[in-house]
Amino acid sequence: MRLAILGASGHGKVVADAAELAGWDEVIFYDDAWPRLAKNGPWMVVGNTEALLQGLEGIDGVVVAIGNNRVRQLKQHELIVAGAKVVSIVHPTAVVSRHAELCVGSVVFGNATVNACAKVGNGCIVNTGAVVEHDCVLGDFAHISPNAVLAGGVRVGPLVWLGASASVKQLIEVGEHAVVGMGAVVIRDVQPGATVVGNPAKVFESRKS
Predict the structure, then answer these.
(1) Beta bridge partners of residue 63, listed in sequence order
(2) CA distances from 77 to 38, 109, 132, 195 (A)
(3) Which of 20, 100, 136, 150 has its C-alpha lying 20 to 30 A from 116's C-alpha?
């Protein structure tokens, strides 16, 4: 089985490693910096986005490995429109409940947990050691960074970035495009487009979504 990864970055290396451990036989990269960028660690970069779109017949699965939520959303949409078989990748040490829902194009990294009745939307990143507790909902193209914790019933809007080791109290809502800073402790709802930091988390800035 041959997996194409779009985005030859450090994040892409972790996706590739998880994919190999999950049973993909061959992993190749595509990146718009090709041909200047020819390798990503031990993996080859063989073309750009256009080359991938033109060569989908030889690919068994595709995943976008771009950390920027908006860019990841645009690239995944482009692939799906072109008929690519976009897949999700789950590291074998991750725990994803059989009663959870994992939508297309999402990645769940090592030692992460997605518990019962949680939903992970399209193109999400549940990073190393992150916890998505029961009944949480992650909107499309959200990024839950390493060791972040969502208590039960948290709702995370589309394109949210939750920083490393941040914690969100149960039943809280984090609005679309919001950013939660590294190590923040969120005990109140976060408005769309807001950036919150600290313990307890407070608004650092607001921006248009």
Answers:
(1) 5
(2) 25, 22, 25, 26
(3) 20
Spell out a b/e string for 76-105, using b for 16 or more CB atoms within 10 Å of the CB, else e: bbebeeeebebbbbbbeebebeeebebeeb
Whether omega before 92 lies within 30 degrees of 0, making that bond cis, reads no
**What one-letter code names the amino acid at 176?**
E
Contacts of residue 35, Cβ cutoff 8 Å, sequence gap at least 6: none
Tokens describing residue 99: 């009663």
Angle CA(131)–CA(142)–CA(193) in degrees, nearest 5? 115
- Residue 166 corresponds to which tokens in the numbers above? 């941040």
Diameter of the chain measured on Cα atoms: 51
Q: Estimate to the nearest angstrom the gap between the alpha carbon of 136 and the chain centroid.
A: 15
**Reduced to 3 states, what is the DSSP secondary structure of residue 162?**
strand
Q: What is the pLDDT along the chain (209 residues), one digit of tens a residue?
A: 999 999 999 999 999 999 999 999 999 999 999 999 999 999 999 999 999 999 999 899 999 999 999 999 999 999 999 999 999 999 999 999 999 999 999 999 999 999 999 999 999 999 999 999 999 999 999 999 999 999 999 999 999 999 999 999 999 999 999 999 999 999 999 999 999 999 999 999 766 54
At 145, the amino acid letter reads S
- The alpha carbon of residue 106 and the mean position of all alpha carbons in its chain are separated, in whole angstroms, by 5
